[in-house]
Amino acid sequence: MKKNYSTQLLTCLLCFVFTLSGIAQDTNSIISTYISAHKKDLKLSGAITFHTNSIGNLSNKNYNVAYLQQTFNGIKVSNANATVVLKDNKVISFKHTFINNLETKLTGAATAPSLTPNQAGTAALSALGLTDLNHVQLLDFATKEDINALQLSQETLTAPLFYEKAANGNYVLTYEIIVKEPTPHWWLSKINVTTGELVSKYDLNISCNFNAPVVTDANPALNTHTTHKHVLNTNAPSVLSKKSTTHSNSYTNIQSDGAIYNAFPLRVETPIHGDRELLINPSLIATQPVDRPIPSPSGWHDLDGVLQTNTNGNNVAAYEDSDNSNSASSAGSLVDGGATLLFDFPLDLTQEPDVYQDATIVNLFVWNNYVHDVFYAYGFDEDNGNFQEEDYDRFTGFDIPLVTAHNGDGVAAEAQDGSGLNNANFATPADGGNPRMQMFLWGASPFGEFLNVYFSGDFDGLYASTRFPFVDIPRAEDPEVSGSLVVIEDDGAAYTGANGGTAGASPDTDDGCTSIVNAAALNGNIAVIRRGVCTFTTKIYNAEDAGAIGVIIVNNVEGEGPANGGGEATEPITIPTISISFEDGDPMINALNNGESITGRIIDNGPLADLVMKDGDLDQGIIAHEYGHGISTRLVGGRNNSNCLLSLAFEEQMGEGWSDFFALVMTQKLTDTAEQPRGIGTYVLGQDVLGSGIRPARYSTDFSVNDYTYEDLGNAEITVPHGIGFIWSTIIWDMYWAFIDEYGFDADMYYGTGGNNMALQLVMDGLKLQTCGNVGFVDGRDAILMADEALYDGANECLIRSVFARRGVGALAFQGTAISRMDQVPDFTISDPLGTDCEAVLASQDLNKTLFTVYPNPASHQIHINSNKNSGLANVEVYDVNGRKVISKNIDLVNTATLNTAKLETGIYVLQINTDNATYTQKVIIQ
Fold this sequence. Notes:
Blueprint: H1 7-37, H2 39-42, E1 49-57, E2 63-72, E3 75-87, E4 90-96, H3 102-105, H4 117-127, E5 137-139, E6 146-148, E7 161-165, E8 171-180, E9 186-192, E10 198-203, E11 205-207, E12 260-263, E13 277-280, E14 302-303, E15 306-307, E16 316-320, E17 342-343, H5 357-376, E18 411-415, E19 424-427, E20 436-439, E21 441-442, E22 447-454, E23 461-467, E24 481-487, H6 519-522, E25 526-530, H7 536-545, E26 550-554, E27 577-580, H8 582-593, E28 599-602, E29 614-615, H9 620-635, H10 655-666, H11 722-743, H12 755-768, H13 777-792, H14 797-806, H15 838-847, E30 852-855, E31 862-867, E32 872-879, E33 885-893, E34 896-900, E35 907-914, E36 919-926
Parallel strand pairs: 3-7, 12-17, 16-18, 18-20, 24-25, 25-26, 26-27
Antiparallel strand pairs: 1-2, 2-3, 3-4, 5-6, 5-8, 7-8, 8-9, 9-10, 11-19, 12-13, 14-15, 19-20, 21-29, 22-23, 22-28, 23-27, 24-28, 30-31, 31-34, 32-33, 32-35, 35-36
Helix pairs in contact: 5-9, 9-10, 10-11, 11-12, 11-14, 12-13, 13-14, 14-15
């Protein structure tokens, strides 16, 4: 909802705008002076002019960050950006992708448009091939409102001008036209202002492909991680072994709406990880400091000062969108909690999701608000482009091109969206435009015995398989998919990289990656295909075009089981596809190639319960992941630039990694350990909590579980952007645990002061310090180091460097260009040769580590005592406040021991640990 201000209020606001514009001008003058004085250092030449898109700040408010875009004659130039850090009105960092001698590269480019924005909008619709315009919208730049494509001739569209680099290398003048399809694309298109031609297009809608752990099949020979040589401490304790530093306060001015929700609480990832709870007024944060702004000061149901009784509020509107209308206008699409705001609805997971729709919409509403509030505490606030309909007069930014530019952008969260399956997505326009989250239903369990071989001698039987998500596996009552199994044969030519794969040699003719030469044999039969160098969808399309009625993909990795994947189909697939293991499939391929006959059918005889769909709205990891795309999009390059993390432009950008990291943090259990494997998307894939999930490996600091490093970016199984993000998230997840090991753990996710909170804050401020257009792993590491300098005076430089070096982003690592993920040079060196001797620093810190950690504290029935060294046998004594010994016990402190305190009354006690070499005491609270 956008504002309609009165004349008096508008006048006041405009005065405020002019005041802030003056401040912005001062900042621009400081930056211009800096550029003039440091051109040689910045490697700049020619006339340099720029526009300040926005100015944000770090969590240390003494630091401002200005986001610039290079201009020519006042018109912005695409992909020419700078991130400038200022402290005390001085530039302390200037990183850029500005273009040298820009004026020479614009020779012949138009200086003024011949077409109107409306004409450019019409040209964009045509160039994008859109014919059904009923639900297509175009975003108006001035109002941030959508204009229906069918009404374009009756409306006035405004659009900004950009100089854009065309395919021939020349720069042309374009309009930026954002076209929103109902599903799934939000196209950021650049239209030539003279010819109406489409110069470029990028999709602002980030589709996460949660059903595809491996979109491009891997050649296992390219993926030998066992050669890495790293040492890991595998005896680290759970987070509860770290001293809690949660603080309390007496803040009393929060406006409570008193709402109650039956939903999943913080730290519970999915229904297989824990249960729902009655959450009483969760917008009221118990640890809210008196000196910090409240994330949701009027609760979660305030909208322009009016209390909403449904799943709508200042931060998010969560509604059912099974008809893909992209609107909450239909009756019942929002869930009503009544005057008492009681949102308690049944959830029966044995039923189809439409039966418990109200419960899932409530959960989606709660978790969007959770993510909003948690990340508000870490600096995703009004000044940095967060998602709110009303900013509660807390926006202090220096750059307001329009009065309401930063308002009116709460999340439109669409539950059980009808536009797709087995996926989720998030689209983020510039500040002031509503982002959209689409959450989908997920199909049947991918695991079963879907291959039945018969009349084939020793091969007869049922085979463990995985189903691919494109076509239902037929059941007994459906028409059979049966016939001879035929090994596909292609021409062995080089693979072109179709359907999102990586181009390259494809010598194995059994992998079905190129032109098929035995189509006649495949026609009417079931194609058997080896997993190889191309995408799964490429194999299926080739088999389908040859007339095959089904596909069996044989994994090429021993001991891995059937391939678990899918990919994103660019065209409809009409034949069922399953996968079997290498151990089962390789003998079949050998027999078939030797002239033997094998007959089989693809069939699903599994329990009907396995066919019940799952709802992504109950997977909190997916919700946090999707919202995380909005956070990273708004923070990298500033709130008014939405195209810094476009994977088609920048292969090494880490957007998927930040989103996975946010999901891991939001769903981390208090009993988790650093080495504990964490899969992503296990629930919706029908797996258990230890399932492999959707990434190439599970997240863990243990290299025996996840040994991916920076040198693996070019591997075939590492896709763009999901595989790239996976490796980035692996690194910062390691950093998260390293900070917990150093500073302890604080269970307060909002305002705690433990290592977990510190690491999350560094990641958030690091996002703000990224350079749009140069987003890669080394740039990301350096941004976190700069954040540490701003927040903690660089105290953690060596800790950060050691974590990144362990995964190949060492001091001498070379990023290359962000455009390519293939040109990096990994390095495992910790210390910068021109900087701090981190080896000496880390050795000194190791000597000073605490010998014992005692947790939890407060405790109830038991206390755990962890020895950071092998302390052997020790005597543990507990004394009450009167000095009476109430417990005395000999325990073995090889690592962690447990002390039973169930018989102790509530109160304060002193724990004393006596070893041969030392005595250690600590106050503990029993509650």
